[in-house]
Design brief:
Blueprint: H1 8-19, E1 27-29, E2 36-40, E3 43-53, H2 60-63, H3 65-82, E4 86-97, H4 101-118, E5 122-131, E6 136-144, E7 161-164, H5 184-193, E8 199-201, H6 206-216, E9 221-225, H7 233-242, H8 246-252, E10 259-263, H9 265-273, E11 282-288, E12 292-296, E13 302-304
Helix pairs in contact: 3-4, 3-5, 7-8
The structure holds adenosine-5'-diphosphate and magnesium ion (MG).
Length: about 325
């Protein structure tokens, strides 16, 4: 696999997915969602893994190992949140830069442990290596489903309202990407309140991540209202620096780690009227039958949005 093949990260994952065994005994949900779901003697267990690399997802020299540990745990917690699951156990594998290996490992551990403690996660194992390369850390997180089941990317329906749980964009500009606030509690409260349809966490950027929901839900479309897409102060700050409009940052930057979900009109109205305690909600658009993503401006005109979120096989490092 090389970048010239033009396959892209998502094309590659699709390639792997087509070759993965189907109909595996005990597999409730395979490749293609924020977590896999396996059925262990009647209990639904969620599994996810995310790897972070120095120079790609963080800069160790500037950010320090504790921030890296916090992010490594946080991004995985966010994937469990995206399923409306309860995170439980973590396994951590590290490739430490030789020379400062012990100091880095201790810092990483502190950052991970604090984040894990906040969300009731136990660190139960892992693997430690040192080499002459940069720091790489991979966290595998396991969780459980609640009585409401898991929320998949593939359950959006025409007419659903689309929500996000917080302001978007500019997360790389001032280092917010290092401090993800996984919406675990919020996801559980939402799933408790109403029958949600599709859900994903915003790691690649709204245009890409909502695009995954649309694709997985059978090739649907969405119309977003530019005036109500919540734009983070970091997106405005970034916009002043690079001249790219704040809404473009909000749609594409990624690593906001907010939730994006869809809900049928009745449930959406109930949520809008009475959001669960402590949950911020922005109703930003609607799912439509015609494929593609459209942005409706204040003048009522719609323009297509190209999914320009982050793709590991294509993009230069945003850091
Ligand atoms: P997320 O952004 O939520 O972490 P990804 O875009 O990384 O999700 O991955 C999308 C899906 O592809 C997930 O179901 C993930 O488990 C799966 N996946 C990613 N890389 C691989 C791989 N190398 N082999 C098998 N499955 C993979
Ligand atoms: Mg995800």
């Amino acid at each position: 696999m090389n970048e010239e093949s033009g396959m892209g990260e998502f094309g590659l994952i699709e390639w792997i997915r087509r070759r993965a065994a189907g109909g595996v005994d005990g597999l409730a949900l395979g490749i293609g969602d924020d977590c896999a779901v396996v059925d262990f003697q009647g209990a639904q267990v969620l599994v996810t893994a995310d790897m972070l690399m120095d120079g790609r997802h963080f800069r160790l020299a500037e950010d320090g190992p504790e921030a890296v540990g916090r992010k490594a745990m946080g991004v995985n917690l966010s994937d469990v949140a995206a399923m409306a699951g309860v995170p439980r156990f973590a396994v951590v594998a590290v490739a430490l830069p030789r020379g400062a290996a012990v100091e880095v490992a201790k810092g990483l551990h502190e950052g991970m442990r604090r984040m894990a403690d906040r969300f009731g996660v136990s660190l139960i194992g892992g693997d430690t290596n040192a080499w002459d390369g940069p720091l790489v850390i991979s966290v595998t997180l396991m969780g459980t489903a609640t009585e409401h089941g898991v929320r998949k990317r593939s359950d959006a329906k025409v007419g659903d309202a689309i929500f996000v749980t917080g302001p978007l964009g500019g997360s790389f500009f001032r280092g917010r990407h290092l401090r993800p606030e996984p919406r675990v509690v919020e996801a559980l409260a939402l799933a408790d309140a109403v029958p949600l349809h599709a859900m994903i966490d915003l790691s690649d950027g709204l245009s890409s991540d909502l695009g995954h929901i649309l694709e997985e839900s059978g090739g649907l479309g969405a119309v977003l209202d530019a005036s109500v897409v919540p734009i983070h102060a970091d997106a405005h700050a970034h916009s002043l620096a690079d001249g790219v409009s704040p809404i473009v940052h909000a749609l594409n930057d990624g690593e906001d780690f907010e939730l994006c979900f869809t809900a049928p009109p009745d449930a959406a109205d109930a949520l809008s009227a009475t959001p669960p305690d402590g949950v911020r909600l922005h109703r930003i658009g609607v799912i439509v039958e015609s494929p593609g993503l459209l942005l409706r401006g204040t003048d009522g005109r719609t323009t297509p949005i190209e999914a320009r979120g982050f793709d590991h096989m294509k993009g230069p490092s945003p850091r």
